[in-house]
Design goal:
Elements (H helix, E strand, L loop, with lengths): L9 H4 L16 H11 L6 E7 L11 H15 L4 E7 L11 E3 L5 E3 L6 H4 L19 H15 L5 E4 H6 L4 H9 L1 H8 L14 E2 L10 E6 L4 E5 L3 E3 L2 E3 L5 E5 L3 E2 L2 H12 L3 E5 H5 L1 H13 L5 E5 L2 E3 L14 H5 L4 H9 L6 E3 L4 H15 L6 H14 L12 H7 L5 H10 L9 H21 L18 H15 L4 H14 L4 H13 L7 H7 L2 H8 L4
Parallel strand pairs: 1-2, 2-5, 13-14, 15-16
Antiparallel strand pairs: 3-4, 6-12, 7-8, 8-11, 9-10
Length: 556
């Protein structure tokens, strides 16, 4: 855990691992530990679970961390009889400080700036996200587009989250008491903030008006009138890294609704306005934002901060998630490759442990989920995994049922090599996944994994990215090759597995004095109408046996 703050309590520090090293004295699921700490405060109903993000780029899987961590805690609390309100704030009155390199369209597909109206962004640097047009020309603003993506992702995963716009909280006057209190106690605010942020001098005013002339956020307040609820300002330049966003120099007056608090005050301000009881956040916030937010909440606003929980980031393909570097993936893209319950399972794992989501090895994640599912029904000899699975599984799936059939992901990818539904069923039955009594709806549900695995094979261009030829392709083999194929067919007909078939391919080629490459090429021609393919023997071992024998004998 990336913090040593002892005030965080036991929720994050004592949560069970969910990977096999759970302490018997604790619950089997980390969300129960968090719920315990929330209940210990005797919160008012509804209990408010919050997350939040600034809509600065692609709404990617990393942004979804807080929604899913909060979801599991919310579900545990609901199970315990509490009314729960899960909210997610879009910090959309923040200014756009730089152009993102990537965006996501309304369907969650990642696109470059060259595919949209990038000028709609470039002309509006320094303005609040809600004042910037949607570069796709569909939503009412850039912020609304981003929020809609997150809400669509939540809906895809069945998370009942309420999206809240910071801009609307200001416009509706919800923030008025917080802004007034902070400005009334500006000396205390400066003193507290000075512990965490440099350049806090006696002239610093913790409020950022929106310039009435150019629409940009400015940080220069020259006077405060608490009775009128206004501030005077000058629209000055904004420094962003090595770049400067020019102010227009306009001098004006803004109400408390025509500006915003700086983010270190705005975050605890949200806790007060929304009555937040619990908020998870990434380890970056644990090291800076949380200590300052807690301090401001207690010593400026005079409120109790919510129960916190720090989660570790996960990496993508071994590298940090980064919109600027293009190392991102969206929820929509993941659901093209995985069932929703597998993605929920990923987020149900211990949030204290760093993980890598390696798209090339999604089969491992799916295998882990399948084992987790079996453990929930007591079918795995692993006490700690079973304890975790029995507790967490009902929150991961839409419905607890024992009659599901889960095809191994790589086997599903093999089935994805053919579009012939009957052949898929025969191959799965041949491997023992179905029998004559398996209900049609169970078969159909199980085969739903096939197209996802097929898309994974195509996206990764891996050893499963081939198309099995249902009809016999054209061929022209030497007599020795044909004789060798007949011998191999006899061997397969005896019922050997894929590993044995792989070895027999080599032996058969040697017995018939055939070049190894020529014999493999013949197999690839018959099954894929191509010169190369997957590891042939193991692949043939997973196909329906009669089909393989018939094809090796070159019979229609």
């Amino acid at each position: 855990m990336a913090t040593n703050d002892p005030s965080r309590g036991d929720a994050a520090a004592g949560a069970t691992d969910g990977d096999g090293d759970a302490d018997a004295a604790h619950h089997g699921f980390w969300a129960d530990e968090v719920a315990d700490e929330i209940e210990a405060r005797d919160p008012d109903e509804p209990v408010v679970v919050k997350g939040g993000v600034s809509p600065s780029g692609v709404a990617h899987l990393g942004n979804f961390n807080e929604i899913m961590r909060g979801y599991f805690v919310a579900e545990v609390l609901r199970e315990r009889g509490h009314e729960v309100r899960q909210v997610f704030t879009s910090d959309d009155k923040d200014p756009l400080r730089k152009l993102p390199r990537k965006l996501a369209d309304a369907d969650g597909n990642i696109v470059g700036l060259g595919e949209v109206d990038a000028g709609a962004l470039g002309r509006n640097l320094g303005k609040p996200y809600t004042s910037i047009p949607d570069p796709f020309g569909e939503a009412e603003s850039y912020a609304a587009h981003f929020a809609a993506l997150l809400k669509a992702d939540a809906d895809r995963l069945g998370v009942p989250v309420e999206m809240i716009s910071n801009t609307e909280l200001y416009d509706n006057g919800d923030f008025d008491p917080v802004v007034e209190h902070v400005l009334e106690h500006a000396d205390t605010a400066r003193e507290v903030l000075g512990e965490y942020q440099s350049k806090v001098d006696e002239d610093y005013v913790p409020f950022n008006p929106v310039c009435a002339e150019c629409g940009k956020i400015t940080e220069t307040v020259t006077a405060v009138d608490l009775d009128a609820g206004t501030v005077d300002y000058v629209c000055t330049d904004m420094t962003v890294g090595d770049n400067t966003i020019d102010g227009c120099g306009h001098e004006g007056t803004a109400t408390f609704r025509e500006g915003k608090l700086p983010w270190r005050f705005e975050w605890p301000g949200q806790w007060q306005v929304l009555g937040v009881d619990f908020e998870p956040f990434g380890k970056d916030h644990a090291e800076g934002s949380w200590p300052s937010g807690k301090d401001i909440a207690e010593n400026v606003l005079g409120i109790e901060p919510p129960v916190p929980m720090v989660y570790e980031w996960f990496t993508l393909n071994g590298e940090a998630l980064s919109s600027s570097a293009g190392n991102i993936v969206t929820v929509a893209e993941m659901l093209d490759l995985l069932e929703p319950e597998v993605l929920r399972y990923f987020f149900a794992l211990n949030p204290r442990k760093a993980r890598d989501l390696d798209l090339t090895r999604l089969d491992q994640l799916v295998d882990d989920f399948d084992r987790f599912e079996r453990a929930s029904f007591g079918e795995v000899d692993d006490e700690s995994l079973t304890r975790f699975a029995e507790r967490a599984y009902p929150f991961v799936v839409d419905e607890v049922r024992e009659d599901r059939v889960r095809l191994p992901y790589t086997f599903a990818a093999v089935l994805g090599m053919t579009d012939d539904e009957d052949l898929r069923v025969k191959m799965a039955r041949n491997e023992g996944f179905f029998d004559e009594d398996t209900p049609d709806e169970v078969v159909e549900e199980a085969l739903g994994r096939v197209e996802r695995a097929r898309r994974w094979a195509e996206k990764m261009d891996n050893q499963y990215n081939y198309r099995l030829q249902v009809d016999l392709p054209e061929f022209d083999f030497e007599p020795a090759v044909e004789a060798a194929l007949d011998d191999l067919a006899d061997f397969v007909a005896e019922g050997h597995d894929g590993e044995a078939i792989q070895g027999e391919i080599y032996e058969t080629a040697r017995r018939h004095d055939i070049e190894m490459g020529d014999f493999f090429a013949a197999g690839y021609r018959l099954f894929f109408d191509a010169e190369q393919g997957p590891r042939l023997g193991e692949f043939l071992g997973e196909l329906e046996r009669d089909f393989v024998v018939t094809r090796l004998r070159r019979e229609d």
